[in-house]
Amino acid sequence: MAESPYVAPSFPPVPDVKPPRDPPMCLRMISPPESYGFGELVYNLVLALPALLFLLFLLTRLRSSVRKLTQSRSHIMATYYSFLWVICVLNLCWCLLEMQQARNHDKETAWNIMSLITRFGLVLLEVSVVVFLSQGYLISGWDALLRTLLFSGIFATADALVKAVYIFGFGIPLFTSQDDAGDWNKWGFWFLQNLLFATVYVVILTLPYTRWRDRLPARPSFYRYVMILFVLNGLEGFGSLLLGFGASFGYCVYGFAGFAYYALYPPLLYTTFLADFLGEQEMQMEDAYYSEMKDAGYFDGDWE
Where are the membrane-spanning stretches (predicted)? Predict the structure, then answer.
């Protein structure tokens, strides 16, 4: 009986497994990690530290601040002080939730929602400062406050809704990302938003050299505030542009600017508009400073 020819067994082809790539440099600055270790814990503590320290600072000044606001009856200062507290608490909660998101990625939806709420508050404050101070001296404090909150609230709400559509409707992770350099759907959005804000701040910085210079307060602190926000928005926009073109170095630029924005904006707002007003001074010095701010156009007619 003839033997059948030997047929070698066939095996499925071995897939070409590529070794995992290291995450882009500075990606951790804007995205919770895929794994959690000591390095991520240290970074999260650094991220939350500015918000925690500033919140503790506000707590130490709470009694004197409330007393001064009550005595002055300044609706605008009281509103901004209240907003500042809300933003600081949201900022700290956002940092703490990011730690949980880093440990357990099924919390991504909750972290995105908290990111939207926190960013909404920051955008509301940014826009409201510009809107209020651009109204000049023609209307009373209450009218200025209501118009400011209405316009800035509409703008911040529209901004948050667009971001929510991007995240939950189109599935584009605006706040969380894992190696998405080159995705213009995401980075084009951030570039356009930062370009819009940076353009507004450039216009404000040029107003002192135009015939409309008297519509803004003649205080150096206000222009320092505008300059810092212009730089931060410019850096974020530049980082977004780099990432849109696929340059991973953009993570460092965008991440640094984003960290500085969340960490510095509440103290910047406080030192620019509230620090001197709420500082430890004698009542006559406080009244003199309040009159100076009123003459400079911060809240014309606020006592009416």
Answer: 41-59, 80-99, 111-133, 145-169, 189-210, 222-247, 253-275
16 within some domain = no
pLDDT at 304 over 50: no
- Residue 240, domain extent: 180-276
158 and 185 fall within a common domain? no
Mean pLDDT of the chain: 78
pTM above 0.70, yes or no: yes
DSSP-H helix ranges across the chain: 38-60, 62-72, 75-103, 108-133, 141-164, 184-206, 220-244, 250-269, 275-278, 283-296
209 and 188 part of one domain = yes
Confidence category of residue 20, pLDDT binned at 50, 70, 90? very low
Return the number of other C-beta atoms located less than 10 Å from residue 274's C-beta. Answer: 19
Is the pLDDT score of 32 beyond 70?
Answer: no
Residue 298 covered by a domain: no
